Amino acid sequence: YLEKQEAMELVKSGNDCEPNVADRILGRIIESIGDNTFYHPLTLVTISGYLRLQLAVPGDSFKADIFSQEVKKIVEQNKQKERYYKLTEYMFSYDLKGIPAKLIKICMISFFQIFCPDKNSNHKIPFSFVAVVWKKIIDLCSEYELLPEYGSVPCDDHTISLIGSLLADCCFVQYNRDQFHSDSFFKPYHHIHHDYAAVAATELEATGILTEDWLKKLNNSIVEYCYPNFDTCDTHESAYLYEMLPMHMFEAGQYDSLQEILANEKFLHGRLATVGLLSGIKMHIRDCENLVGNLDFDDSITGALTLSIYEEIISYLREKAVAVGEENELVLFDVIRSLHDIGFSYSMYHQLEQAINTYQFAKMLLQSALGTTHEFVAATLYILGVLFQFKDEHASAVDALKEALQIRLSDEDESHKDFIPSTRLKLGHSYLKTSNVRDALTCFCNLLQDIKESNSPILFIEQDEILHKIGDAHYNLCEYSNAIVQYQSALVSMRPLGRSSQELASTYFKIGECHRELENNSEAIDNYNESIALRRESTSMEDEYFSDNLVTEGNIAAIKDDTSNALLFYTKALEIQRSKGESNGIQVASILDRIGVIYMKKDQYQDALTYFQESLEINTIKLGEEHREVASTLFNVGHCMILMEEYQSGLEYLKGALKIRKRILKDGHICVADTMHYIATIHEKMGDFQDAFKIYKKEYTFRINVYGHDDIRLSTVLRSQARVCLNRDDPRKAIKFLNESERINRLTNNSESLDLADIWYQTAVAYEHLGDYDTALKVINNCMRVRVQKLDYEHPMTAETLQKLGDIYAAKGEYSEASKNYEEVLSLRKFNMKQNNQDISCTLEKLGDLDRLRKQPSNALKRFEEALHWLELVEDDSLITAKISVLHKLGKIKAESGRLDEALETLEKTLILKKEENEKIPNANNDEQEFADILLSIGVVNGLSGNHDVAFQYLTEVIEVYKKVSNDHEKIGEAYQNMGTFYASVGNCVKAIDCFEEALRIRQLEHTFFDEDVASILFNLAYSYSVVGSNVKAIECLQNCGEIRTKLFGEHDEKVADVLYSLGKIFMEMGEKDSAMDHFLDAYEMRKHALGVHEKVAMNLYWLGNLADEMRKYEKALEYFEECLLMRKSLKSDQLIVAETIRSMGYVYNSRRKYEEAMECFEDCLKIQQSVLPDDDQRVGDSLNILGVVKTKAGYSQEGIRTLWEALRVRKLNDDLEKVSDTLNNIGNVHKEREEYDLALNCYQESLMFRKKHLGGSHIKVADSNFNIGIVYDKMGNQEQALECYKVALFIRTLKYGKDHDFVAIAHYKIAFTCFSIGPNKDEELFENMDQFIRIKRLKSSTKGAAYALALDLVAQAQRRKGNYKIALKTLGEALAAVTNDLGVPTDKATYASISRRIQEVEDEEPRTPWRKLKFSIKGS
User: Torsions phi, psi of 450, nearest 5?
Assistant: First the structure.
């Protein structure tokens, strides 16, 4: 409670006070502030003294906080605004001079805390007051030169935040400068911040307290103060806030907040409402560009930012446009201008799609407001066209620029005319990019006309430039003559304009390119040289060989066929381009293409392809997929692949080139025709001759339209058509085309040219195909004469002609002449080409083929081996295909020579080599069918070697491969034919028939009926039908085969004899022995006449002998066998075949019951077999078996038994159960004949066991065994068991032979006989079986003979036993007739006598009635 004066004195004294005294002083001061209307500076002195006592550390503002809080309370209670101003005035009065800086610090801190608005309270201080205070602070600091000592003022984060808040308020005040009378009263923060930065920098050096981003913190303070309240601030605040707040956010680094507020609908609407639509949009675009333009964002982030911000603006503009409609044009135009600004900003940041959408919206509004023909609409369309060009969407650019041009060409608005040339220029550019070259040409021509008609120069467009573009258009259209005219006109226009030497050189180069395409080589070289000279004028010596000149030098070298230098120049040019960093430029693509062409000329196709494909990739990216250069490269790739024999891939590339060229050029353009020619060539190479012919025909029509009917260039197409006709087996049409080609050639060339010789060569081939070999020889000799005249005799084409001469002679059958020509060719080729040439191998291959035709397999083998040797002299992957061909033929000829193992080894080597071809030459002629051909040969050899399962596997694979091509491919027929042969060889004739039938169907599709392949299949099919018992079908096949072979070879040919021979065997099997004999004899006579002493003749004799034996013409049979034996011995045939002949003779002697002679034959046969074969061979066993049977018949039963047991031993060793059972059966027969029934029964039963086990229970041999066992049981008196065995035999024989067979009849007889022996209780069964026996005999017309008579006798005895005497007598009467001829003479006296006695016995036994007594008495008398 000190008095005021006391307090002042206390402060003035500078003495320290105790804390309680200071508190009281403070309270007194506070009270004074509240009561008084003005404040003396002493107040500040008092405060300073107080704080000096309290502050231990400079910068502690705790007490200042207390002071400010208390003062704020008083301020809030007293609303008198004057106090604020007065307080400020006294606080910063000039009386404070000399006061330490610390006092200023305290004043500033207090002032900030008292008068800066608290963002958490509703209290606000007028902006004008804040601005005045801040100005006084700065002025005071400046006036008292306090800045150097400013480091003592604390600038911590809290202080900076306070200063930032104050700065924001000051900015608002300055923005609303209409509240002040002085324009220079205050500079907004964003203008003075650099000055304050200097202060901050000084302070930073002094204290080190401030951070480097203090300025960012100041802006953060402003943003924190303003941003939350932007939508609630006063009107005078909002104007500055809407304009400047994004700027402060940017400086504060609050990019997310900046993006957020720029995309904020409320902020946008507030800004546009406050500052106006157009100005607000411009501000928004400016802030957005500041955001993305000054930051290191990639395109994706930039795009996202602009898109999020501008979408909100465009949405607002759409709403605005809809709201105002057409009623408020000014607002609508502001919307449109805003859209243009946004579109431009989008394009600046490469957001071309958004830019296009924005301009399209603007265009729509313009068309709605101004109509479709206004210049503003055209301008917008023009901008859209340019944007589409930037996007490389030239089709859309064309649409936009065409529409713009249509508007500007209208007469409605004069303002259009100034923009027409620039629009034409842009449109022409896009036409070229979309390969609408003709439209581009029209556009540039019209532009040229505009320039000529214009009275004043057109900005940025020169006449020479347009002439050059017109030349480019003609060049792209392959109109090279027109292009030359335009380029030369461009040269005339360029010189007065002072164009550089480089530009002139470029034009000369283009002219050279045109002349080169026109094959005007001298003119091309002249222009190239001019181009080189001009470039050298403008180039220093060290740059003399820069890229363009190198390319030009390369072109000159290429024209001169100097491929080495051309490649050198091009490669160096490519290196220079790539060293410049232009690895993917159009110039690089052009050089790559040129290098590819050179490699193709050098036959280095894989290297060429690599360069072409790289060029294609660049051109496609740079020029688009449908550009002329792309088509050109596609064409080169396709051509290269033809040469590499990759036809399918080449076809795809050429089709692509054709599609582009048809679109760019006229349908009948020569480049289109060239492309079609190569496409047709591929179809021809792939065997698709129908499509090839169609395309050649269309090409021919195109060329006629361009050149007329007599142009020499038509000759090539005609020859191509002829070649296709030859491949389609239409030599007559081929000759027609070749004659026309010859006519054209004679019109062009007065003398006989090499081209004419080429036509004659092809014509000879056509006549060869036609079979007119004499004409073919005449024409090929003309070809030979011209080629020898024009070329040396040693020239390769001479050898080619001689080889064709050999081909024609070979086809004519004059093999010696053919061989002579081939030998001459071989000599020439060896002389000219020395070694390592494929042509030598080819000729040797021809000679080998000729030797095969001449049936000289050993010579053919040598030729093929030598051909392979020549190919193997040099390791060249290009020869691998030829090696495969020769190896394949070598394998085949080895197989034909019987060297099957070697053949298989060679063919497997061929297959491996084919696989290597795929690896070494990727995408070479790796046709799957070539694999199949080799597999076919391997399959055939395996089949011939007996590896049938392997053969079937290979042949099935072959069929699957060729079915991909066609179900009726001739190779499928060949595979089926071989499969049929092998199935037949293993006895599966059912499958063989299926295979042969399918082979026959395919062969008849491929060939005419009269074809040897068809005949061969029919022949094999007949064999298979005969095996399965379909003899009628077999005969039909053989008759058809015979008809074909008679037509082809004449009726006395060896192959016709083969058919007759086979027919004879079938007729023999059918029992038609007379027909068989006739066919065998005819075949024999033909073969003997054609072959002389030959194995086939011997075989014919062999079967004649067998047939005669069957016909019981034993003498004739022996005659045939003896002749056969003599011939086979003279032929030194295989000893086993000789043994077989002797054995057959033994069978004849056996049939004649000349057992001694038979034994001799069989012993001779056995002796030969034992000398050749192992002792346990089954053939030895067979001979022992028959020898044992014959010895027994000859009466040497003991020897016979021993021989049969030896046969049994051998057969058991071979594990052939059927033959074992046969020998056991034969041994049983011997024992049965010797009445050793127990031993016989054992043998028969063991034989039966083996037969059931091996053959099954229903086999006919099982029936025979049962029959024999029945006989033995019968002999042993065991009739019941005999009857059961006979019944089993009957059942099986009926099952196998049918009910009408003779063997069935015998079984019935045996059953009946046994039933008779058993007794009357079996009579019914007896009669039943005997009735069947008689039925069969009558059916067979075999009612004569003792056997039939005895059977009737047995029936009669049974009837007699039953008391049926009349039936018995009647039956005996029939029996007597069976052994009597038509004259009543007995044919079998013993049987006749026996039956006669039986009749007498029956008559005597029959009871005599009166009538009967009378009858017998009369008979007796």
Answer: -60, -45
